[in-house]
Amino acid sequence: MEEEPEEGKKKFTGMGNGEKGSRKNNWIEEESEDAELAVDVYQTEGDIIIQTMVAGVKPEDLELSIARDIVTISGKREESRNVDEENYFVKELYWGKFSRTISLPQEIEPEEVDATERHGLVTIKLQKVDKEKKNTIKVRSI
Known about the structure:
This protein is 0% helix and 42% strand. A hairpin with a 2-residue loop joins strand 9 (108-118) and strand 10 (121-128). It has 142 residues and is mainly beta. The chain has a four-stranded mixed β-sheet with strand order 3-8-7-6, with no helix packed on it. The chain has one domain (12-128): Immunoglobulin-like (Sandwich), CATH 2.60.40.
């Protein structure tokens, strides 16, 4: 049984016998908008950490949209080579737009975010909202 992609996501299917130059070995991109990133999401005592691989994408080509309980990572991977389709034996790499929206298990501080990239691995550190934190404010006369 074949799994259907989520709405607005890409699904790639390989066809054919793999012979060089065979038009039956084309990769077909089904109609949809963006490919979905694979992510790891975990927590430490004070943070939620999101990691994803974006090899071949410059940090300035990534966009992070952060709310209190949702993070969206999006970008575009540009193909920089020109190879005729009939010269491919296998074509599995994804080129084009991608995005991923993650619902967080608890609220975070949108202003307290640190995002880094190293060797294609993006790590996003989101500070959890401390619901136990209290602040005492003195009322002053004006």
